[in-house]
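Exercise: predict the fold of this chain.
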Amino acid sequence: MNQTGFTEGNKLRLLCSGSAFFPALERAIDAATSEIHLETYIFKDDLIGHRIAAALIRAARRGVSVYLLIDGYGSYHLPGIFIQNLLNANIKLLIYRREDFFFRFRRYRLRRLHRKLAVIDARVAFVGGINIVSDYDHPHERIPRLDYAVLIEGPVLEKIDYAARHLWMIVAWAHFRKRWVNKKKWAISLTPKGNQPAGFLIRDNLRHRHDIEHAYLDAINQANTEIIIANAYFLPGRHFCNALNKAARRGVNVILLLQGKIEYRLQHYATHALYGNLLDAGIKIYEYNRNYLHAKVAVIDRYWSTVGSSNIDPFSLMLAREANLVIMDKAFAHQLRTNLMQAITQESTPVIRFHWRSQSWWYHALYRFCYFVIYYAQSILGYGYKEMQHHNVL
């Protein structure tokens, strides 16, 4: 597969769910000596939110420069007193597109900061799909949401660090916080830390509108043996679906792990509208039902893999700011694939083509109705006709 844009010499560690991610993030924050950049869509006032906030406050009090960027929609319910406590500790906190009226109709409101990344001392970074929120929606739950992140050391940090600083600068200027712009540039060691090639990709609304989507499509189109995609909110356009169908028809084993529990009913049913076409092409679909699926990962040909924040839906591919790490390494791919296959074989239910087809016409009509409602709403709320054409949605 094409390795253009990949950086050699990285050391990567896969973190499965918050039980691995939050302790690693907290240790990195506690070890910080110079600066911390943390971006998240959701920062919640719960046990995990307090734990990470306490670590950030400890860092700020020992003189570390802490830059915290949260999304105004995803973190809308974060209490003002929680935010003020962080500011009082000398943490620089900015809100990306603050929502003053949560229920007010706005055309641009879906253009969110959906990235989840952290850079500590330009020495270690985290990229993935895990928000600063507890793995458990209810105290009695014992099974965490299925999600992933990567702990990163090595030369690819240069791109991650630049992305974090650049977005912080943009938001700081927009909030008239010129003095908060991080002008210091800590030296990033380009000395190899390992032997894993990795590429860092973002999605924005300027130069990098389609980078993550194109990386997926390039890997799918070049796949020879196997494609495994686990995605919480899976609603691709026709171009993406056609690539998967073509791969399956040329003999590639295509497996999709999708959301089984209903989290957002409209999107859940809209995804079902795609099942018939995918199953007819020979694609295997499994629905994760042990808890909520929040993963945005893939493994292709047991070598190419990606972990990040980008779903395969209009919100992520057309509107939000996203960040994914792409890895070309057999060992990393093997670890991720093993974890996914365990979730597929032990914690998921296969979608049987005959059973799906035998559902009543009413259900199939409902699925298609939900599908068109979402894409019609996207065109009105945030995107125009040309962009929908680009994604072969219309």
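Check your answer against the key: The mean pLDDT is 89.
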